[in-house]
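Review session, final week

We close the course with one last complete record, chosen because it touches almost every idea we covered. It is Extended synaptotagmin-1 isoform X1, a protein from Notothenia coriiceps with 1825 residues. Go through it on your own first, then we will talk.
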Amino acid sequence: MESDKSAPSEAKGTECVSTADTEKKALIPAEGPKPKGISAVAVLWTFGKCLGALLPVYLAGYYRVSTSLLVFGMMVYTGWKHAREAKENRLKSAIQLLNNEEEYTFKKVSKKQRDLPAWVSFPDVEKVEWLNKVLQQVWPFVGQYLEKLLVETIAPSIRASSNHLQTLSFTKVDMGDKAMKVVGIKAHTENDKGQVLLDLYISYVGNVEINVEVKRYFCKAGVKGIQLHGMMRVILEPLIGDVPIVGAVTMFFIQRPKLDINWTGLTNLLDVPGLNIMSDSMIMDAIASFLVLPNRLVVPLVPGLHVAQLRSPLPRGVVRIHLLEAQNLAAKDNYMKGVMAGLSDPYAILRVGPQTFTSKHMDNTDCPKWEEMYEVIVHEVPGQELEVEVYDKDTDQDDFLGRTKLDLGIVKKSIVVDNWFPLKETTSGRVHFRLEWLTLLPSTDRLEEVLKRNESVTSKTADPPSSAILVVYLDKAEALPMKKGNKEPNPMVQLSVQDITRESKTCYTTINPGWEEAFTFFIQDPRNQDIDIQVKDADRVQTLGSLKIPLSRLLSNSNLSLDQWFQLDNSGSASRIYINTVLRVLWLDEEHISSNVSSNLEAGTSKQLPQQTAPHPSFATEGVLRIHLLAGQNLVPKDNMMGGMVKGKSDPYVKINVGGETFTSQVIKTNLNPTWNEMYEVILTQLPGQDLHVEVLDKDMDMKDDFMGRLKISLKDIIDSQYTDQWYTLRDVKSGRVHLILEWMPTASESDRLDQVLQFHSRQSYQNKAVPSAGLLFILMEQADGLPVKKSGKEPKVGADVTLGEMSRKTTVCDRTTSPQWNEAFCFPVRDPREDILVVKLSHSWTLPIGSLVVPIRELLSEPELVLDQWFHLDGASPESQVLLRAELKMLIPSKCPGAVDKAKVTTTSDPSPAKQKQEADTVLRSSSVDTPVETIVSSVTLHEDVDVKETAADVTEEKVEEPPTPAIAQPAHTSPDLSFASEGLLRIILLEAQTLVAKDNKMGGMMKGKSDPYAKISVGKIAFKSNVIKENLNPVWNEMYEVVLRPQSGQEVQLELFDKDMDQDDFLGRCDISVADIIRSQFTDQWYTLNDVKSGRVRLILEWVPAVSHNTTMDQVMRAQSLQSYKNKTIPSAALLFVYVDQAHSLPFKKSGKEPKAGVELVFGKTTYKTKVCDRSRSPQWEEAFYFLVRDPTEEMLIMKLSSAWDQPMGSLVVPVRALLSEPQLVLDQWMPLDGALPESEILLRAELKILSSRMTEAPQPSVPHSKKEEIVVPTASDDENFSELTKDESVAVSSQFKQSEAADDLALTEDATPPEPAASYTLPDTTPAAALVEEPEDPEEQSTQSETAEPGKIQTAGTGLGSLAHATVTGIAADTLGPAEVTEIPEAEEDLPPHTSPSQDFGREGLLRIHLLEAQNLVAKDNLMGGMVKGKSDPYVKINIGGVHFKSHVIKENLSPTWNEMYELVLSGHSVQEIKFEAFDKDLDSDDFLGRFSIKINEVMRSQYTDQWYTLNDVKSGRVHLILEWVPTVSHSVRLDQVLQLQSLQSYQNKAVPSAALLFVHMERAHSLPLKKSGKEPKAGAELVLGETTYKTNLCERSTSPEWNESFFFLVHDPKHQMLVVKLSSGWDQPMGSLVVPVREMLAEPQLILDQWFNLDGASPESQILLRAELKVLDSKMVDMIGAGTLPCAASGPGNGQVKLSLSYASQERKLIVIVHACRGLLSQSKDGADSYVSLLLLPDKSKATKRKTAVKKRDLNPEYNERFEYDLSMDETRFRRLSVAVKNNSASFRSRDVLGQVQIELSQVDLMIGVTEWFTLRDEAE
């Protein structure tokens, strides 16, 4: 690398050395010795400066000048001073850098390198010190020449050009003493022999000083310092055989050079940031106009040369660019303010010199397919490059997606380049191009073949491929006719071929013009096309002559050219023009491509390249040792407590070392019998003498880890046995052993067992997340050939980077050669051969990419013996570049894989420990209800009987498992949760009632016994519940239900305590404790529990350990039973438990800052929310956390997971409907799931497991009567006897099986002789029709919400609320004193015939809409007087509008007699209204508002005219009128014009933020039936609340009835019928909800006549509850809809009132011009009271040089100006598709503080029908919009 950059760096270093001292002297002033003492002159000077600074302040105050001018001047001076100081600091930094470089170069570099002679050259760029010395010598004379040129020639011409510049003079012209330097010269020898082609690297840092003075205006300006850097191409041609040998010198820059100018004097303003860029770019544009390609500066050295042809030679060739597609572009579009990530709308911009093309944009994709074709003319190769930039199309500013470059010299050399090019300056993305080099043929021999070939070229661009190019050299003309009035013309020429027109420059006041210009045209078919030449005057109106030349005339000439004089038509008799036309056929030399390939093959044969690799015999002989570390036993305790007095335990971990690889297990805290369950793989050779070393250590925090034993196993023994599963005793310690499974993996060279191996691996899970390898991939990198050389011409130092998944290997870096040889082998473990991909990247010294190769591993699966051994072509390199490698796949077949060939010797050592050995604490429990498809290998620490049982269960589970699809690259297929996952169960507690409680409330000082206000507290572990308080009752009935999810453990209890609610301290009423183990054993218990620690009292509880099953066969029974139960605390029994294990994620998107995210997951299920921990920064976070949820309805509820970075930046989401689990085997989803709103590759691995709760309760629990009353309360249910018996039988079977499995899995201290108690309650199923048992409750019961306390840290849980009352039995509180025999009240069903439809009145839906548009006023009376009435002021007008009691009031316009309001009001009225619209105008004052006039309009006149737009004169005042638009909007009952009505909303905007309505919605509320009763059992007083948007109506409250009738009608204004919805809420007395109804308005759009008239079911009520209503939609068919197309829409300023501009857009196909007419503006907004001096600026985008900028004249102080100006753009019709017109209305009189842009709009020309033309008003937006 150092040698590659030595030439330019040394050249720069030389430049820096030679110029450092002089620059330092020029830019840093010399500091002399400071004088001692105080100088009187210095004191006076300081005093004078202080006076000078205070003088402007004094003068400003004396003359009462506004201080803002002074502040503005100070700000300008401060800005200039700041910019000046910043520039001086940059110069000082540059000088310091030069000094450092000088010191480094001359002091640190060796003398040998410093003293390189000047004649030392480099291969690519040569130093020319002799030329720099010559330039340095002659530079003073160059300065003298330029000074003379400026003073004697340029200055007089400037003075003569303008009267204002007659006093201009150059006061100083000094070109400085720093000459231009040529850093290096590169000579090209691969081009024509008749020319010399040189590249000069120019660097000019000059201390130029030029001062200009205009004495008339006391103006001084100048330049002090210029920097110019760039590469100039110099062509010496033609070479002649006479002195001076070279005929002419041609100079030009291929790319724009870098220019920096330091301005002085008045021009220091150009150094202000922003202006300096503009000024330098304008000068750079002037330089580019004659010195940057395709412009050339030609200096002829001999007479008689054709300078025009030298200035515009024939192109080198044509490149046809096929822009095919792109992949993996960055996503730039976000939705919902960044909450959801989108994609991009990409398009590409291609540049070759000044030729620019823009592709069409593709919506919402990161892999666009353009398939477009462009043709570019190449003037110089090498040198010219194809530059491609990709952008994301946005409404405001397009986002950058990346760029790439390609030297077209490579295309010329390769003829065809078809490749993917990676995008730079972005995170991802690549573009696919096909580039074809078309040579220029001077004959027509192949023209027919070219035309035939072009027919097969397909492209989505409109232009067909060209078959030839035409170069027209426009030389001169003679004897052109005079203009009218016998004046000499200003001739210019228009040349047209088909629809392409070019224009020449203008030659002023001559009839013998000389243009000497060249023009190039692409020709599709030269047989049928002509050249049309028009010579015109500069005004383009008067034609001076014309000429048409058929191209067929050129085809008949031998050289396809015409070089002669042509007589002009329609001109003078002697008028003629000299033109040289050259035609060249474009030929793609496909034969030469094949010959290149053959030549390369022949060259390879001559080199004797091997056809295949020659690997060493040891290649691909390695194998895999799989180590499974399971558990340890009886390890030595190392952690002592209390100074060693008490023996502790240990924190063991294991270190395994084999073959130089070391693995460290996880640390198991405080355990002498740890279980690791970790797996490791290591690739080893079968060399003898290798051992496996295992060492067990105790983890300590402070000191060195303690030794706990070691063992050593010979690798030879492992290979011989193939598979070993045994306990190994630890050495060098008293006790301890380790359980290992060691397997030497057999390999196979066929892939028929791949599916079985992957399926076997998917059932294995390890704690360290290891994924077993399915194969080994062996790679031999042998050699490469035909690699490209570097840009400097040197051969590369090539290295190869081989990557598979996350593993990467690098070869050595070879010496410089294009055919490197490595002969290096690598080995990679392969997780999934169907998904993994091998990537080989070749580069020069790991920095400069050369090419790449991608080999999917799945390609090897179809090869014989899974081997690929061949030459591979490289992507991104030359066509002949290739690499030779061998890829060999070996499949790893586990010994325990089903169907495996039994070649392994399995060694199993039995457990020498006693049959019953006491294990350590912390034994992991697993519930019997867990049905997991993940096979977990369990240590043989357990008993032999348990092992047999578990193996049998595992076999049964394994047969039922269906293999899910394998996830992508090197990721685990499934989760590996802890063994305790999903082991929780549900405990359901029903607090039914209590009896004979102790009375704690005494009356009259204790003389009379009172009662109690009892409530209960129930706690299970750290979870607590609190019941409602039952007032004054010793036999309370609660009927409340609670659910607890818990994991069974020893010693758990349900603790119940009863208290008497008091004002100060609650009294104790008793307690009881129930063992959870007894509840689990009995499964279901309904009994009375005696209260302890009190005299009397008992409480009735129903306790159920609800069995959970992994199938959905009982789902319907569970849901039916759920609907039959109702509780006072509104809880709903859960139907299932959902367990979620969040494992990990991968490929998450980066943050906006580019950093990796700190990922966390928020899980939301209903009203329950959990959050995981926040991981460290990673795109592949791992959480490994488990959660559970109570599921009420599995068919409706869904789990939502939201990923974010540190809870603030969303990164994706996932929605999992619970019903999706119902169709899964065992109700389990365990897989990778893609994330919505993230990257396409972003996924999350989780396990969702649903357990259906199969409860024994099929009816509502019934409280018993007190002891004195033995009557039995009958609780009806919806099921019959047979169903109940069958259900009980099925559930008892489920319970018993559940109990047996739980007994085998759970380690609970249960007694075998314990029998479950008999239930104390009996349930009777009546034969009659069930009816609701209604029992009156005490008046005014106190209702308290149930409090639930959860004790899980870090988890957030919100309790859910139940539905309303159900239409089934609900048992409420019973008063102990008054309870008699239970009475069952039967409610008869309604027998009345319900009408199918509503019957509204005849006037229903007859209302209409009155729309009032208050626009403006004029000539209002001035009411505000100044100076006591001596000076007339203005007014602050506003308007009041009154229509039949409805009032509207406009905004106040300050100090304006001609205000503009632009406000809109809407009012719904009946169609036969006789009211009047009354308008009154007032002047806003602080005390009393002054009257400005009034008028009134009859509404029936507005209805008759439908639409009125006119001025109304104000009455009762001297002057004034108001401009109104009044519209009676007709309504229609169809949605045909709805889209146009909605479009009207987007086109109109008003100052009062009103939005025009799109429709009217009429609603008739008729009646309802079967509404639910109130909680008290009374019928409701039903009322309905109707809500649509922000409008709310309420009906009357009916008398108590379950079938109320309202017969009321309402109407709503609808702004968006496609999104708004009507909500109807029914309640009793507006306080107790009884149901609701949601009707989306869009449903009416599909109905006939837009009407819905039917019965609707109510949500949240009884199933039979319904409501009858009629909803009728009327679309507002405004007349303004018809004005949209006509362009006569009334003024509706955008947003805050920016106004509109009226434009006409059309395309003149004959003249090939885009015509833009600016008519007028209206409603402009100005911050000034005097209006704005507005003008319209036009710009065609994209246009960096602003060459298409046009502007109208300035209209003074007018907010509604009229321009009527026409502008034309020479633009082809095809080019208009890629351009957009930017229209900006600007204020010419804008002050420093105010903005100059009043509004702007950008018009996509592709969306306008330009051929027909369009005239309309366009809304102006803010710049930010």
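Two points worth writing down before the exam:
The radius of gyration is 46 Å.
The mean pLDDT is 78.
Good luck, everyone.
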